[in-house]
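Long-time lurker. I teach an intro course on protein structure, and each term I like to show students one example going from raw sequence to a predicted 3D structure in token notation. This year I'd like something fresh instead of my usual example. Would anyone be willing to generate the tokens for the chain below so I can use it in lecture? Attribution to the forum is fine with me.
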Amino acid sequence: MQRGKNQMKLLINTCCRHPLFERRGDDLYTNVTIALIDSLTGFTMQIEHLDGHKVVIERSKVTWPGARIAKKNEGMPNYENNNARGTLFITFDVNFPKGELTVEDKAGERLESSVRFFFTLYAAMLSVVFVS
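-- Reply from a regular --
Happy to contribute to a lecture. Here you go:
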């Protein structure tokens, strides 16, 4: 092209899908699989964000399959205002046992404690319902 003439520049921006996160506007969505025991007893975990920082997730109550939590200001930067960030939505999948539990699994202390915790929690919920 000659100098001084109108020139056209073409910018091609290709994007591919991320294996863990999906962007919708300023918000990010991801799925996390947790163990059945953690779904009953609660858990603390970290997710590595796109920029490398760790997002801490803590649950102290029962987490059912499909439960979703939102972490404000952990999404993507806003196009117009880089100081504003979207929300990170985390959906939980629960990894249930694939078949029958073995004798060792049934006798496991961790399983017993989680079942005890679950029934204690359930009994407490019932007492709140009947007392109210």
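Some talking points for your students: Residues 83 and 130 are 48 Å apart (CA to CA). The chain has a mean pLDDT of 81.
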